Structures are given as C-alpha cells and as structure tokens.
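step=encode ok
step=design start
structure_in=
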C-alpha cells in the first residue's frame, strides 16, 4: 500500500498549498488571527498575505479543500463566539451570515461557493449561527478580484 501511495504521489504531487493546509491545525491558524476593522465596519479576521492564510484561502476557493473550509470556518466561529460573548446576554439576538453569491458562470466553473462552505463549517462549530443564502442575488458577472489592481 505504501508503494502505491508513493507512486501516486510521484505521478500526482500535492500542490504546495495543499501540503501546507494538510499540516495546519485550527490552533496554528488561530495564532495568525488578528481581527482588524476597516472601512464600513468590515472586519478582516486573518492577514491574507501570510503564506499559511493564503494557502488556506486558495485551497478553499480553487480546490474545494474540505480541510481548508473547516479551518477557516473555525476561525470565523471563534470570532463570532467571542463577539457574542461581549454582547448583553439578556438581549435577544441571532447572528446571520450572508454569503456573497457567485455568478452562474463562476459557480459552474468551481462547482461550489467557498464562502457558503466556510459559513457552513462555522455553523457546525457554533450552532447559534444562521446562514441566509438567498438574501443577496448576483445580478451581473464581475471581474475576479484576483485580476484587479489594488490601490
């Protein structure tokens, strides 16, 4: 069995990002979590340029890697859990995650919406979350963010 696995790995080597994600744990990724609030109260949970984070995002987005979804979902769940603990426990509230929909073309290309998968993973870790996939509708196909110049 080891010989077959070694031959398979030789013929189909893992992507570098796949190898990184395979070795990651929620705790090791969590050490990189640095929630930063930007414009319009948008919070960035992880530094995208960090190699471990970038590998995890690429695996989740382009390779439908379930472990990457789980890792990113655990970071999201931890953040929401901490945010909720700061609120008054006597208030009635529910946290709703609203994933941005993909265009039909991009959904067909990828076969999944990575943001929905990450949100579902977060809900698995933290049952208080609700996901609303139908609140937003993509009305036009836009250029991929990866192709846009940053300012």
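sequence_out=
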């Amino acid at each position: 069995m080891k010989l077959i696995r070694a031959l398979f790995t030789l013929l189909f080597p893992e992507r570098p990002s796949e190898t990184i994600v395979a070795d990651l744990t929620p705790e090791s990724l969590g050490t990189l979590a640095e929630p930063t609030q930007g414009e319009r109260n948008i919070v960035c949970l992880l530094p995208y340029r960090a190699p471990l984070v970038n590998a995890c995002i690429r695996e989740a987005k382009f390779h439908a890697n379930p472990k990457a979804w789980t890792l990113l979902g655990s970071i999201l769940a931890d953040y929401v859990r901490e945010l909720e603990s700061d609120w008054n426990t006597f208030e009635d509230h529910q946290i709703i995650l609203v994933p941005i929909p993909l265009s039909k073309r991009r959904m067909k290309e990828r076969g999944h919406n990575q943001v929905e998968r990450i949100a579902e993973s977060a809900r698995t870790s933290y049952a208080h979350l609700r996901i609303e996939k139908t609140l937003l509708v993509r009305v036009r196909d836009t250029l991929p963010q990866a192709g846009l110049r940053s300012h």
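step=design ok
step=annotate ok -> The helical segments are 2-11, 16-23, 26-30, 51-62, 66-86, 104-110, 114-125.
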